[in-house]
Amino acid sequence: MTFRYNVLSPEFRTHPYPVYAEMRRDAPVCQVDPGGMWAVTRHDDVLFVLKHPELFSSRGFGLAVNPPWLGGNPFADSMITMDPPQHGRLRALVSKAFGTFAMARVEPRVRAFAEQAVAELPLGEPVDIMPPYALRIPAFVIGDLMGLSPSLHARLKRWADLITGGVTTVRPDEHDRMQLARDAVADLRRYFGELLEERRAAPAEDLVSDLLAAKVDGEALTEDELIAFMTLLLVGGIETAVNMLGTSLVILLERPELWEKLRADRSLLPAFIDEVLRYEPPLHAVPRTTTAEVELGGVTLPKGAPLLVMVGSANRDESQFPDAGHFNLERPGAKNLPFGHGVHFCLGAQLARMEGRLALEALFDRARRISPGPEPMAWHRTLLVRGPGSLPIVLHSA
User: Are the CB atoms for 241 and 138 separated by under 8 Å?
Assistant: First the structure.
């Protein structure tokens, strides 16, 4: 195939699903622009890649978010870019912090903050719902877990964007965007370094203090390892939840009958959130690198080939999800692929689902219905994740 899909074109980012369907049908494993990475689009092939880290290394993630011009990226050195066994040893350090018991302990605080954030939203007038709601609630939650200063919360999403998906979309001539990303890395390193010093002097009940006290193979984490861990927690705690909340509202605006149904029966919210995560997932692509020559989807890939594992396409694969382009609140079966699979399954899956449920409950209590604002919504531009960059809506009083 000589034609290459451009997965960063504005048209693709706004309407990716028809292109995904075409790729699954005609070129399930193919090279795409920019850069000639190999896109993997069918569900079974995506699952195979995620299940076999010995063939498809997560180091590809680190390479994708650490271009030479950046000068280093702590996210690129975090455990999300590592393969077993190193990944497993580090993952064990934070797994308890996101378990069922821990989630039950933090739920009252998340509920209270969601109610506070929603109570401050205006009624009867347009508001871009992303900053005061979809961003504010996840920023509070991860900031609270990590013990970050509340004054910092507004900057967390900007840092997360710039050091992950943001760096993957910078063109060679965009020197201003390069500098913004370099500044974000420097700011993040400086703040996290200062926070580590504070917690060494005065430990608190937060994840940062837990990491300082942790041992891997009998040794404490180094400063660089600690900052990489904190960066991963920041990114993982914000990106999924922010985009999930935003796309949930996009779907509810398009389907007002769903708003009425969920508002009347809150027990349907977990099923709604799971279908949101399948139908319009926050994570659309995961980078990997082949460790040896391997055949995938009828294509022979050489050793060292960079892959884009298209999770967003796999979640719409008709062979796995009948009528995949239809939002079905009663869709049966597991739909966990939005959180990855295998050794890199997202630790924060329970937390994200809880945030989504509590944030939507608070909104249902505040508003009788929602309607689109006067300005159109916009999808943000990134290679790896998808969500609304802005979403003007009107809340109508309950």
Answer: yes
What mean pLDDT do residues 135-149 have?
A: 87
User: CA 113: distance to chain centroid?
Assistant: 21
Q: How confident is the model over 245-292, as pLDDT tens digits? A: 999 999 999 999 999 999 999 999 999 999 999 999 988 988 899 999
Instruction: Tell me what pLDDT residue 177 has.
Output: 86
**SS3 of residue 332 by DSSP:** coil
Give the bridge partners for 38, in sequence order. 31, 307
**Which one-letter DSSP state was computed for residue 125?**
S
| End-to-end Cα, the chain, rounded Å | 55
Question: ∠ CA(308), CA(337), CA(339), 5° rounding?
Answer: 85
Q: How many angstroms separate the CA atoms of 117 and 134, rounded? A: 10
Element housing 303 (H / E): none
- pLDDT reading at 344 higher than 50: no
Q: What percent of the chain has pLDDT over 90?
A: 48
Specify which residues 39 forms β-bridges with. 30, 308
More confident residue, 102 or 159: 159
Angstrom distance (rounded) from CA 294 to CA 38: 13
Structure tokens at 67: 């271009």
Average pLDDT (360-385) is 91
Q: Is 34 left (phi over 0), alpha (psi -120 to 50) or beta?
A: beta
DSSP state of 214: -
